[in-house]
Input
Amino acid sequence: MPLDKSVNQNKKKPRSLQDEHMPSSTLNPYTLAGLMLLLIAIFFLDLSLGSVRIPAGDIMGMLFGKEPQQTSWLKILYLFRLPKAITAVLAGSALAVSGLIMQTLFRNPLAGPFVLGINSGASLGVALVILWTGSVSQTTIFAGLSLLGDLGLIIAAGLGASLVLVFILLVSRRVQNVMTLLILGLLFGYATSAVVSILLHFSIAERIHLFVSWTFGSFGGVTWKQLKVLMPVLIIGILISQMLVKPLNAFLLGESYARSMGLNVRRARIWIICITALLAGSVTAFCGPIAFVGVAIPHLARSLFNSSDHRILIPSTSLLGAIIAIVADIVSGLPGTQVVLPLNAVTSLIGAPIIAWIILSRRNLRKTFAS
Amino acid sequence: MKETLCRTHGLTIGYRFPRRPTHVVASDLEMALNRGELTCLLGPNGAGKSTLLKTLSGTQPPISGNISLNNRDLKSYSQRELSRLLSVVLTDRIDVGFLSSYALVALGRHPYTGWSGRINSRDDEIVRWALKSVGADDLTQRFVAELSDGERQKILIARALAQEPQIMLLDEPTAFLDVPRRVEIMQLLKKLARDTGKAILLSIHDLELALRSADRICLLSMKGRLQAGVPEDLVLQGAFEETFHSEGVRFDREYGHFTITEVRGRTVSVEGSGVSAGWTKRALERVGFSVSDAKNRAQARILVVSNKNGLCWKLNVHKRESEHHSIEELLTCIHTELQE
Output
């Protein structure tokens, strides 16, 4: 490459080729630090903004055990904003990573955390609890769950998602081609939405409203008690996903090449599916089906870092997912007002154009998955 | 003594189905791949070339028989061991956007790297060597999605090389390439086989190229028979006619290519020497004349001469003489004359 030569001639000491490549295969430490700082800054912004504005200084003070100017702030921070912000960080990260690994597994730019039908399973579970108990006699198992309130919904969603996972795993052990899974997930989604719409049809208005508001998604409904379950699950899931970089990179060239390079494709596939189900399933159970983050963030990461290497993509996607989720949370809270917008509406309405603009302006969408 | 790296015994390849009878593609295959040799696998479409390659690479289990690699049964290799011994170039489409050529070739180090896939300086050296040996060191920084077909094929070969295999299997590496690029890839593979002592097997459709460059040829017929040998032996044994037998196509043993057989019409003779006479013969054969050197049997005689005005074709039909200045003119005239 003539360009390279001239660069080398200008610098008297020619840079070794190794130096040229090593940074490109892992995330630049400065970028990593920058993203983390940004995340921390936005995290504090999220704690500070809302229907009541709490100055950043007071937040720092409260976190280190000082008394705030107003005692109500302590309650707002600890009971509401802190769990909400932590949930947003973890859920955003989890969804983005699971979207990335699904896109790689299926080699499809439109894949996301929910392609396997995990959200369909969860929404079916929730629909059964909310809608069925409203119309049919109160003696079903679902009625029992609905008495548990939020926890019942979480259990129902979790059960629904796990059932789908078991089904997908059983199928994935038999099928050779991973595309079969994609189509099955799609078909399963249609079937469940049909069942859900039948349930909706026969349900009563308040129940329908309850179900619809679950589908809006929210980071705010998670209590400290629930976070004790959700937090370790998501952290472990995200950590394991960081260890999947090697098989994921091997999958870049397709399963046949991956196999020829010594990868146990079936085992890697099951790991990837399980991690996705764990991450996306638990987020959906606790926060509702949050759209968009999982599909868009991986593209944003590829676009920003010009790479398909998972050693770069996995950490950057998890950080970007957390950042975008927390921004969406701030916006949906409409700082300074009492109004709260549906989270799903915010992620899609505001996030989609921004990310579309970034990707289009870099003119490399085509390259994400070159056709 | 040649060192055989891969040998099959009574190998039967095909597909097993859970509830349907087994589909046998080819059976009783006996073949060997030797160190330092380039072997070409030829056969009509659907004869099972890809199936054979998949079976040899361990992706697909054989129906029966066995494959021994380095005098050890293929089945006894772990996937990781196998990936250090054998690498492949497949026809699968590569559709990753943000992957540089270097990164793609570095993926070939997969069997040697640790859990994170980190490339150490030895890996880096091998990746560079692989890129250099396929003549792609100038493509290092380019994205794979931006490469031409020929360049991408070189990168894929470099990736297979970076796996440091003893055996390389390539499924139609020259498909989609123009003729000079095909020749280039074949020369490259031949050189790699020689210089690095690998056994290379590739499937290919370009018969003439295979005949000219392969050390050995394996012919797989539609009936599932395999004939292997040195190219010239196979030509003389008539193996090509047998394998590619079909209506209207004839294997020309003299030139080592296929010609379209037509009902040969009238006989014409061509005099003259060199390239121009050769192409004149080809043109006449193409339009359905049979060309012979015996002047007395010919219904038309053509003399190709080269004078100061360029080439000139002198045609003699029914004692009538005419002169032409291009093959096109000649063909038009000979047609009208002989119609009468």
